[in-house]
Amino acid sequence: MSKPKIVLAGFGQPMIDLYHWLESRFDVLGVVPDYHRRAKFPFFYAFLEEHQLPILDFAQANELQPQAIIVYNYNKIIPVDEVRTEFLLNIHMGLLPVYRGNNANSWSILNGDYTVGYTVHAINDKLDDGDIYYKFGYEIQPNQTYFHAKQAMKTDMEQNLAHKVEDILQRKIQPQSQEGASFIYACPLVPEDGIITDWNKPTQDFIGRNMVFARPLGTGFKLKYNNTLYEINKLSMISGFMHSKGVPGAVVLITSEGAVWIKTADTALAIESLSLDGQEIIPSALFKIGQRL
Predict the structure, then answer these.
(1) Coil, strand or helix: which one is 155?
(2) Could you tell me the sign of the dihedral formed by the alpha carbons of 101, 103, 107, 109, in that order?
(3) Nearest to 114, CA basis, from 90, 145, 84
């Protein structure tokens, strides 16, 4: 029995991963990249050449008559009226119908919703608005960051995505409409969003931003002190610290382990480790009680 014929659309390592997840069950006819960046990403083009995957546009994809086009990490508007395939599917890094757009999972975390994931949905003429076929969710635990959720999503894709796509193409999954659903459009984040500029925010805001910007996926969660940016390696909420008034940004305690407690808008948070140029710094070496950041 011949494999279903599909075309992939996307770029970079996510597209390479997608090929590996699907190639055993599907005949991959080629790849439609969102942009041509051979000089900057030679590894991607080397992969396409190694696996004899032709670079296509959507008109060329139409000529191959694939049963489906699977989109992942594609950052341009797709001309849906010009695409001729039975199934035009997107892998959206976010849980629809609520979180649409870029950095959807990050904005979920920043909004205090720590259940993140990915969605397989049909593409229509509105951004992330098409019918939903499959969702995978992961709840980030207090001692984790988005990195742990991303690993869980990757594992689920590796184990289940090919089966789900097969079921979609065989119409074994009944899609769910997003019509009438409430939603949020998320915008891209930049590294500057991961720098603390105002301590007059709830502790949970800092915890959420650390989950998003912590390495290895993020650019680092940072604070500025004496015109120097220090990266926060470890911070946490303080058990038992009651809601209270005070001066946001004030150092209220230094622990025997060298951590500092800093007042926020509602409670306080503990910074346990910092780094500068890759060298770890104990916070007590920089700050003193009563100091205002």
Answers:
(1) helix
(2) positive
(3) 145
Q: Which residues pair with 92 in a beta bridge?
A: 119
Predicted model pTM: 0.94
pLDDT tens-digit profile of 38-77?
999 999 999 999 999 999 999 999 999 999 999 999 999 9
> Rounded to an integer, what distance in angstroms lies between the CA atom of residue 72 and that of residue 92?
7
> Is the omega angle on the peptide bond into residue 66 within 30 degrees of 0, that is, cis?
no
Three-state secondary structure call for residue 221: coil
> CB under 8 Å to 249, separation ≥6 — which residues?
199, 200, 262, 263, 292, 293
**Residue 71 and residue 161: Cα distance in Å, rounded?**
13
Task: Give SS3 for 123.
Answer: coil
* DSSP character string of 15-28: HHHHHHHHTTTSEE
Residue type, 176: Q
Looking at the DSSP assignment, which residues form a beta bridge with residue 184?
99
Q: Chain-centre distance of CA 36, in angstroms? A: 23
E strands present in 107-188: 115-122, 132-139, 184-186
- Distance between CA 169 and CA 165 in Å, rounded? 6
